[in-house]
Amino acid sequence: MSALLLTALACLAGPLPVAAPPSAELLGALCPTGQVQGDACGQCPSGGTAGKWTIGAALPGHFTAPDADEVALWLPSPDCATTADEGGFFVLAVRAAGVWKGEATSGALRVDHCVALRGTDGRDRLACGRERIDQSVTSSWIELDDAEDDPPSGEGVASAATGLGGCEPPFGEAHIDPAISLVVAKGRTEVVANATLAEGKVPSSYTCGDAVPFGPVQRLRLVFVWDGEQLKPTPETATLMARFPKP
User: Fold this and answer.
1) Rounded distance, CA 106 to CA 158, Å?
2) What letter does residue 216 receive in the DSSP assignment?
3) pTM for the whole structure
4) Which of 67, 97, 115, 211 is deepest in the core (most CB within 10 A)?
């Protein structure tokens, strides 16, 4: 590939993503002096109390400005975070003058199942697969997050659930695998997720409260297209999701 073509592609794509620094470098920068314990920090990210955290996921990008050198981090910490905080902390680490800095936000955003999407403004957004279990209901969804906001703001893109009650069709159970992937090909940027769907077979004599048998589990592929501003399902994916049970 010629140097001229590489230069043209770089201009179209904007600044290339920064490389994620080694975890040891980030740990040493974010953990108070003297508190590094192997691959963990011995002081909670907020409050200054004793408790370990580690770097569970690191996603480099340009989240607040096209030329910003940043890494979105997820810090698992059973010692420091509650279940309501999703068991950890979000940090947007910023490198300035060669030094990494960042402040923890409790449970605001997990980036262990996220991909970075370059916006038309040159900043990166985060598309994230999420999952939560609340008693008998398992909710799964995909959201688009802006790490520039404090705490990061999220916009729902797709959702599914299992264990739902209710009397209105469609019935069944659907689940979106949070391990989403990024596909860039033929000038199009896609976020792809695997999903399962077991549709309810409603008896002709159905009344509210009756048990509804489920059909076989179907394995689906959901595709969402990023246009630089919005993440939208393809028409085929929208048709599939219309069959998902509603919360």
Assistant:
1) 24
2) P
3) 0.84
4) 115
